[in-house]
Amino acid sequence: MDHSMPPASSLGGYEADERLAARHATTLAEESWRSLCTANASTFVAAERRTVQIQRSLKDLLSKIEAETKPSTRRVSKALDPKYQPGDDEDEAEEGEEIKPATELLADLAEKHRLRRRTLMQHSSLLELLELPSLMDACVRSSLYEDALSIAGFANTLERRHLMERSEEKQSAEDEERGKRGDVVAGVVSEIRRREADLRRMLINRLRGDVTMPQCLEVVTALRRLNGVELERRNNSTNKSGDDLEGVHAAMEMRLQVDFLEARDAWLESGIAKIGSAAAAVAATSSSADKGGASAQSEQILDGIERYRTRCFEIVTQFLAIFRGSLAPSASDDSQDHSFSLLSMWTARRVQSFLTSLSSNMSLYVHDTATLRDSLDSASFFASSMGRVGADFQPLLAPIFEPRLTEMIVGHWAEGLSGMVEILKACRDAGIAGPLVGAETSTTAPPNGGSTDGPEMTQSSRTPAPPRKLLAYPPLARFLNSYLEGLNELRRCLLPGAFPAIRAAQAELVADAKLALQSNERAVLTPGLRGESAKLREVASRMKTEMEELATYMNSCLEVSLGSVDYALAEAKKAREIEEAKAEARRERLAKEAAADEAARLEKERQEKEKAAEAAAAAAAEAEKQRQEETRSDEEKRPAADFATDTHSTPVESAPMTGESTADFGQMGDNDFDDWNEDGDDGLYDD
Predict the structure, then answer these.
(1) Helices and strands: H and E segment counts in the chain
(2) Whether this model's pTM surpasses 0.70
């Protein structure tokens, strides 16, 4: 291993590099220092200016101290100089102050020293006195109300002992000195007064939270003691009569009641969510789009009503428990009336606010009668609970729920009517009648032999059965389904006060439906209708006719839904009687038409028989006439033939008539003669 030293040239290069590195580091440090000075130049300048100002202020202070203490120093030195005689110094007159002798000056100094020693001996007590404001502040922050009120009462004692004992006459020098010393006590009392205001605000702020009845009693008791401290202070500062103090006490008690209701009202507003508020409704709706969302929304509304009821009843109960016996037996009845009037005004305002919020949320977030019924039950329970304290507002609920119920029912009906009108218009514009006509349904006769068409009432359910022939007209069937859907919603929440409005809406609905069908009929009768115009006109006429019967059925269903079963039965019976009368009239008309047709047929047959008989008689007469003419021509030819036979022929013996022939001839009866007569042989005898 080689341990030889490196060459000198290499060492020299190393030293040169080290010096260059040191020089470079120095340069960097200087640049960094300069940049730092440049960046903090304003700080250095400000520090320099402050230093100059401090030096100038110190010089001014020293000069001022010297100027103020120099005369006193001169007087003390002159007073202590045994050779000094008053009047020897020319500056004495200019200074304007008499230089006391040394004995008096020493006695004054001894008195001041004694006073300072006494003050030093009471240092701990004075320190406690000066710390009273901070101690009360700590008690207020720590909710130590008893200790804070004790300090406030001690402040009244200090004020009465040290600030109220001075006479109203002109004060002497000692009184002035005592007044200067009382400035410290006045400052302490003033600070305690400010802490009393903080204590009052903290106590009232505590009432803005969720507190129980014992806690309310504790807070109100502390506020009353604070009012007592203030009343004592007013009694110390002024010389008012007892009646005036009672008036002040009554005013303080009234103010305490107002503060209590305001604080509890703030707790009511901040602690409950708005009934069915927009945010809650959106959250409930967005949570699920199906029935779960509606259920969550309903639960939100019901929870809001329940919390409102609980808190309102709790506030009223606390007020009555705390302030009902707050007035002394000697207090006037007017004070008690003011107390209860205050509670009555607050309750009326809260009830009105609840009803306003409930009305707006019912119209915005309640869309089914089930939720409406649950909300009505909760609100009615709220009203009955408030009735125990004399604030029952159940009559005010009807104007909120009845119009909303009517709106929901009429909304279902309006949707059905608009759907029917749209279908009619679409089919009319397209010129097709297929969607307006359904399959005819065959109905079996009921056991009693009645007709299945028209409204019927079953005694088991007392519900009208819908006319099945409406299935042949789908628009009317859908319209009836919407109508019945609205009635089903109505049966979930029956409010008697809404019956007149619902009946009026139903009458208006029927009138609008009839008007829509009439308008449709006029539209399809317009010339130039394209498509299945004949079918459209026929369907329009039939639908208009069926609407008359449908109106009766709708009225019966409405009365059943409203609970008027007897009326519905009477109406159904009347409708059946009308339908039976119509059917009887139809049958009679058909029977008369059938009898007339039969009589016309028989008359026609008789006339045809008469015509046939006349034709036969005419034919027989014509045949008889021809035969007579032939007979007559034969008779005219027969004499010439007989004469020729007698002249040229040989006589033939006539054969005698035998008995057999005679018998055969005798056997011919009257019928044979009649046949002859019918054949016209009697004409020979006539000739």
Answers:
(1) 22, 2
(2) no
